[in-house]
């Protein structure tokens, strides 16, 4: 059955990340100090203490140090983009290539490295590439010529979905197949990706459109969620070994003239650069800004509520409360594989925001059984 463990998740051991499906894997990444941190924080100790070998971190304020919190991985400020990709996203990408849906999300305060971690293109230096580019690189290298890789790229702002590849499309509806529950975005651009250069160009266009749209709306991109959806359609032969089902790439030569009819396997990868998790100061927010704060809170707050409900094994998961959680419905389904990366800064000035992000990660790591997902 499709629920069985794939050989991939067995053979690529060596990391706790590979252990079990159905659990949200959560990593924390600390951003290196920037000039502002160095100047403004010179009188303070850092507010986080990492214990990477134990995969733990502690929070610090004045003379007080918290208990240590365990994650699936704790990345210090020197962790490379490559390592972050390999630990956080690669298992998800491999799972998607095997027909499961997968999600990689970044959560954290604005300026802590969400976009750096996910969207960095690394045009001049390939070692700087983020998760999006590396994921596409791996996917394109794994599929055969007869397979199809397509992407959509959009932003969710004030509960409106705007196409970042065709910015005139500003209010794309979410469609839910009544039978399968599958989520789609009718009308959103879906672009076939042939190679990494072309993908980088798409991402660049998307970023430029995001910037232009947000300038027009007089807001910052940190207030919208940017979502890359990758659709993969593969011709595969089912292989059963030791009761474990997996799919093999159909060798190009057997595509015509072979007796075995390949199955068409569809899967989807979501890479989500969430809006900044900091609370907008209500006292300073009026009119449009206040409205915006409420809406941003709607999607992020409902994500938090769903994570809490899942962590507590609650019978009711309020996935329908916002567009973000509706889009992430598959991410919390039984066979999905989901990774969350929490980005934090070192600065004592942001102790409250850092604590809140760490706590969000601690709740998400408690989600152990998504198979029994129910929703109302
Ligand atoms: P966010 O998306 O969370 O608002 P960004 O990704 O835009 O944050 O990062 C803010 C700044 O910090 C950018 O200039 C980015 O290049 C830099 N930065 C973030 N994380 C790292 C890192 N791990 N190493 C080097 N620079 C980083």
Keywords:
376 residues, alpha+beta, Kinesin, 24% strand, disordered N terminus, disordered C terminus, binds adenosine-5'-diphosphate
What this model shows, in words?
The protein is an alpha+beta fold. It has one domain: Kinesin (3-Layer(aba) Sandwich). Helix content is 30%, strand content 24%. It contains nine helices and 16 strands. It has helices at residues 7-11, 35-40, 81-97, 114-119, 131-142, 196-216, 287-311, 323-327, 351-364; strands spanning 25-30, 48-51, 56-61, 64-65, 69-70, 73-75, 102-108, 148-157, 160-163, 175-176, 183-184, 191-192, 225-241, 244-249, 263-273, 337-344. The strands form three sheets. Strands 1, 6, 7, 8, 9, 12, 13, 14, 15 and 16 form a ten-stranded mixed beta sheet that branches. Strands 2, 3, 4 and 5 form a four-stranded antiparallel beta sheet that branches. Strands 10-11 form a two-stranded antiparallel sheet. Helix 3 crosses helix 5. Mean pLDDT is 84; it is low at 1-18, 252-258 and 371-376. The structure holds adenosine-5'-diphosphate. Adenosine-5'-diphosphate is lined by residues 31-32, 108, 110-116, 222, 343.
Number of strands: 16
Question: Judging from the principal axes of the Cα atoms, what is the shape?
Answer: globular
What about the largest sheet? 10 strands, mixed
**Share of helix, binned:** 25-40%
- The number of helical runs is 9
Give the end-to-end Cα distance, rounded to a whole number of Å: 26 Å
Q: Report the mean per-residue pLDDT as an integer.
A: 84
CATH topology: Kinesin
Number of domains: 1
CATH superfamily: Kinesin motor domain
Low-confidence stretches: 1-18, 252-258, 371-376
Strand content: 15-25%
- SSE order in H/E notation? HEHEEEEEHEHHEEEEEHEEEHHEH
CATH class: Alpha Beta
* Category from helices, strands and their pairing: alpha+beta
The kinds of small molecule bound in this structure are: adenosine-5'-diphosphate
CA gyration radius, whole angstroms: 21 Å
* CATH architecture designation: 3-Layer(aba) Sandwich
């Amino acid at each position: 059955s499709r629920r069985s463990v794939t050989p991939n998740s067995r053979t690529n051991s060596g990391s706790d990340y590979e252990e079990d499906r159905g659990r949200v894997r959560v990593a924390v990444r600390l951003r290196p100090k920037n000039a502002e941190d160095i100047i403004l924080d010179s009188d303070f100790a850092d507010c986080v203490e990492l214990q990477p070998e134990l995969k733990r971190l502690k929070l610090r304020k004045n003379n007080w140090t918290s208990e240590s919190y365990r994650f699936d991985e704790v990345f210090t400020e020197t962790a490379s983009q490559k390592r972050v990709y390999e630990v956080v996203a690669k298992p998800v990408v491999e799972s998607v290539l095997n027909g499961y849906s997968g999600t990689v999300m970044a959560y954290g305060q604005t300026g802590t490295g969400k976009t750096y971690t996910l969207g960095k293109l690394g045009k001049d230096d390939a070692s700087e590439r983020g998760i999006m580019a590396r994921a596409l690189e791996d996917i394109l290298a794994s599929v055969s010529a007869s397979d199809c890789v397509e992407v959509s790229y959009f932003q969710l702002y004030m509960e409106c979905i705007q196409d970042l590849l065709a910015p005139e499309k500003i209010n794309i509806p979410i469609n839910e197949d009544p039978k399968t529950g599958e989520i789609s975005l009718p009308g959103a651009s879906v672009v076939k990706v042939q190679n990494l250069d072309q993908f980088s160009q798409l991402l660049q266009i998307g970023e430029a459109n995001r910037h232009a749209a947000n300038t027009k709306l007089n807001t910052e991109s940190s207030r919208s969620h940017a979502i890359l959806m990758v659709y993969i359609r593969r011709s595969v032969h089912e292989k059963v070994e030791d009761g474990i089902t997996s799919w093999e790439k159909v060798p190009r030569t057997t595509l015509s003239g072979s007796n075995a009819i390949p199955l068409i396997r569809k899967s989807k990868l979501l890479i989500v650069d969430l809006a900044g998790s900091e609370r907008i100061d209500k006292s300073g927010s009026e009119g449009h800004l206040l409205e915006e704060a409420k809406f941003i809170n709607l999607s992020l707050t409902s994500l938090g509520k769903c994570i809490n409900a899942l962590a507590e094994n609650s019978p009711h998961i309020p996935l329908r409360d916002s567009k973000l959680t509706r889009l992430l419905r598959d991410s919390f389904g039984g066979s999905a594989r989901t990774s969350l990366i929490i980005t934090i800064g070192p600065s004592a000035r942001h102790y409250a925001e850092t604590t809140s992000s760490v706590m969000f990660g601690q709740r998400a790591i408690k989600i152990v059984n998504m198979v029994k997902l129910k929703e109302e």
